[in-house]
Design goal:
The protein is of the alpha/beta class. It contains ten helices and 14 strands. The protein has an eight-stranded parallel sheet. It has a six-stranded mixed sheet with strand order 1-6-5-4-3-2. It is globular and about 55 Å long.
Length: 314
C-alpha cells in the first residue's frame, strides 16, 4: 500500500484537474452511504470528540473510506481541531492501495466543488470576488474560482484580521489585486461572487447587501446549528445544492424552510443535475443564484482516485 504525503497530494489536486474530475464523478455517480457519526465522551471538559466515517465506491473500480476526527478542545493544546485520513482500496478485491492526506483532499475538493457550481451559476463575466472566512478552505477559494471565472479583484474578510491580512498578502505575492475588506456590507455589495467558508452559527452575510445578479456560495453550515446568510439572501434567488443531504443537515436551509422562506420543492437542482446537463445553469434572465454545499464522499473518492492514478502514472 502506498503512503502519499501532503505535498504529492496537493500537487495532484491542482484545480484545473480536480474540478473536471469532480464533474465527471457527479455525472458517472457512485455509491455513497450515509456517513457514520460517533461521539467520544470524556470526563474532562472539551476533551471529547466526534468521529465521521465516510465511505464511497464504484463497483469494480475503487472503494474509499475517509475518517474525520473532530476534537474542538485541541485548540487549548495548540493542535488543529480536525484530522482526516483517506484510505483507497481496490473495489474488486478489497486490497488497500493507498493512504492519502485526508486534510488536503477535504479542503481542496470542497473549494473545487464550489468552483464547479460557479462554473454553471456565477455570472460569466464575474470579475470581483469576496471571500468570507480565510481558513484552510477559504484560502483556496480564490485559486479555485479563478480557474472557472475571470476574477481580477478579490476582497477577503475574517473575524480574525490577522488571517485576512495573511491571505491578502499571499494573493498579492501572486500578483493578484487583493485587499482586506474593512466594511463587509460594502464589500458584498461590490462583489459579483460572494463565497463564505466559516463556522458561523449566526448570519454574517445579509441579502440586502448582495447585487441583483450576483452569485452566493455557502460552504460552511454543515450542521443544523450553523448558518452564514440571513433569510433575505434566499428571497428572489435561484437556489441550488450539492446533494439532497443538504436539506437534512444544514441550518442554512433548515432555518429558512421552517419559517416558510422557501420549501424543499423550490430547490432548482443539485450539482449532479448541472454537471450532467439535466438542468440549465444561469441564464441571462436570472437574478441572484445561491449554492449551498455540505460535502459528499463522492467528491472525496474522485479526488483520491485522481491522486492515486497521478502517482501510478508518474
Amino acid at each position: 500500500m502506498r503512503t502519499i504525503d501532503t505535498e504529492t497530494t496537493r500537487d495532484a489536486l491542482r484545480f484545473e484537474r480536480l474540478i473536471p474530475a469532480l464533474r465527471d464523478m457527479f455525472v458517472a455517480g457512485c455509491e455513497v452511504p450515509l456517513r457514520h457519526v460517533h461521539t467520544l465522551q470524556n470526563q474532562a471538559p472539551q476533551a471529547g470528540g466526534t468521529v465521521l466515517i465516510m465511505p464511497a465506491w464504484q463497483e469494480g473500480r475503487y472503494l474509499g473510506i475517509k475518517t474525520v476526527n473532530i476534537f474542538p478542545g485541541n485548540a487549548e493544546r495548540g493542535l488543529p481541531g480536525l484530522f482526516s485520513t483517506y484510505t483507497l482500496y481496490d473495489a474488486s478485491t478489497g486490497e488497500p492501495l493507498a493512504q492519502i492526506d485526508g486534510n488536503e483532499i477535504t479542503s481542496r475538493r470542497t473549494a473545487a466543488a464550489s468552483a464547479l457550481a460557479a462554473s454553471y451559476l456565477a455570472p460569466v463575466k464575474a470579475r470581483s470576488l469576496l471571500v468570507v472566512g480565510c481558513g484552510r478552505v477559504g484560502g483556496l477559494v480564490p485559486e479555485a474560482f479563478r480557474t472557472v471565472r475571470p476574477i481580477e479583484r478579490i476582497a477577503v474578510w475574517d473575524r480574525n484580521e490577522v488571517a485576512a491580512k495573511e491571505l491578502a498578502a499571499r494573493l498579492h505575492a501572486q500578483d493578484i489585486d487583493a485587499f482586506v475588506a474593512t466594511d463587509l456590507g460594502q464589500a458584498a455589495s461590490e462583489a459579483d461572487i460572494v463565497s463564505c467558508a466559516t463556522l458561523a452559527t449566526q448570519p454574517v452575510i445579509e441579502g440586502a447587501w448582495l447585487r441583483p445578479h450576483s452569485h452566493l456560495d455557502l460552504i460552511g453550515s454543515f450542521t443544523p446549528q450553523m448558518r452564514e446568510a440571513d433569510d433575505a439572501a434566499f428571497v428572489g434567488a435561484k437556489l441550488f445544492i450539492d446533494t439532497r443531504e443538504a436539506l437534512q443537515k444544514s441550518g442554512e436551509l433548515l432555518g429558512p424552510m421552517s419559517r416558510g422562506v422557501f420549501a424543499a420543492a423550490d430547490v432548482a437542482g443539485e450539482l449532479a443535475d448541472l454537471a450532467a446537463g439535466r438542468i440549465q445553469g444561469r441564464t441571462e434572465s436570472d437574478g441572484r443564484t445561491v449554492f449551498k454545499a455540505v460535502g459528499t464522499a463522492l467528491e472525496d473518492l474522485a479526488a483520491a482516485i485522481l491522486v492515486y492514478e497521478s502517482v501510478e502514472t508518474a
